[in-house]
Design a protein that fits this description.
6-stranded mixed sheet, 6 strands, 9 helices, alpha/beta, Beta-carbonic Anhydrase, Chain A
């Protein structure tokens, strides 16, 4: 699950800030001034925290269009009417739908997902108790995949991508257990989508519920 990275001078971050001010903010100052007064996002994007998944980049959207929450393996907590624990992702979903009135929700998984891979790597989670607990939200996916392998319906080589895709489907199912989401979907006021982003191919696949398969967006 861990990835090696080369240490980088933090000054690069400050250089980025200066570049943003000079190349983005000043040329579009009026836009940002208006944006600073209010937001009206049309889509809630639930994505993975993976550094390679950049919602605004892959959707080519502007600031103010996406309401974004990202976590390990793009998971959606089970619905609870009330909880006395701190539920960040659940709060974002609630706020986006009931307060911001978004028209769309996207659950976006991706290729080479470390969180999905960790479902099969118990030893690597030994010192990551919070991560291990969080990944319990994807435990039904692991069961589905292992049953498919046992019945020779998929190979071990296909396990990673199949897990990542089935995880998207599972998290969409979690969303549909939220009463206020289910109600809006029935009324035609909300569309819930499951996407799979193939990083090294630059392709996104949308889950077709009727055909029960991911179809490449063209």
């Amino acid at each position: 699950m861990s990835e090696k990275s080369t240490p980088i001078d933090y000054n690069r971050l400050f250089e980025g800030i200066r570049g943003f001010k000079a190349n983005e903010f000043i040329p579009h100052q009026r836009f940002f001034e208006e944006l600073g007064q209010q937001q009206n996002p049309h889509t809630l994007f639930i994505g993975c925290s993976d550094s390679r998944v950049v919602p605004h980049l892959v959707t080519q959207t502007f600031p103010g269009e996406l309401f974004v929450v990202r976590n390990i393996a793009n998971l959606v907590p089970y619905y609870k009417k009330y909880s006395d624990t701190f539920l960040a992702t659940s709060a974002v979903i609630e706020y986006a739908v009931n307060q911001m009135n978004v028209s769309n929700i996207v659950v976006c998984g991706h290729s080479n997902c470390g969180g999905c891979a960790a479902l099969y790597q118990d030893k690597e989670l030994k010192n990551l108790p919070h991560t291990k607990k969080w990944l319990e939200l994807a435990s039904p996916v692991k069961k589905i995949v292992e049953e498919k392998i046992a019945k020779n319906k998929i190979s071990l080589e296909e396990r990673s991508s199949f897990t990542e895709k089935m995880n998207v489907v599972e998290q969409v199912n979690h969303l549909m257990k939220y009463p206020y989401i289910r109600k809006r979907v029935r009324e035609g006021r909300l569309i819930v989508m499951g996407w799979y982003y193939h990083i090294d191919k630059g392709e996104i696949y949308n889950y077709d519920k009727k055909r029960r398969r991911f179809i490449r967006v063209e």
